[in-house]
Specification:
The protein is mainly beta and 114 residues long. The protein is built from one helix and seven strands. The strands form two sheets. Strands 3-4-5-7-6 form a five-stranded mixed β-sheet, with no helix packed on it. A hairpin with a 5-residue loop joins strand 4 and strand 5. The longest helix has 13 residues. It is globular. The termini are far apart. 21% of the residues are buried.
Length: 114
């Protein structure tokens, strides 16, 4: 499986987080957002919609309890990005670029740092 590697900053150490394509999902972009969050922009190959997910290490996500950032990233890839949206599709928030976001969002949708 192909993938994208990017640094995930948590507290002060830098962890390598692997976000990989899962099945029929292609990852278009990924970045860190603050000290404990990361964003992934992706697309299901069979659906004409670009999606974004923002996940936080400090959120109420079961895998967030682990100190292993790579494991957390893999679980997000496998069980969030790699799975159909289901009822999450009813609560997507579209940004100015047409990306439909979900996950642990702030008041504004995520923007990639320049």
């Amino acid at each position: 499986m192909g993938g994208i590697r990017f640094g995930f900053m948590l507290a002060s150490p830098v962890y390598e987080l692997v976000v990989r394509s899962v099945g029929c999902v292609g990852v278009a972009d990924a970045w860190t957002d603050g000290s404990d969050a990361f964003c992934v922009v992706y697309r299901y190959m069979t659906v004409a919609k670009t999606l974004g997910i923002r996940m936080t290490k400090s959120g109420p996500y079961p895998a967030a309890e682990t100190a292993d950032a790579e494991r957390f990233g893999r679980e997000v890839a496998d069980f969030d990005i790699g799975e159909p949206l289901g009822t999450v599709a009813n609560n997507l928030r579209q940004d100015k670029n047409g990306i439909d976001w979900w996950g642990y969002l702030d008041a504004e949708t995520p923007e990639k740092p320049t």
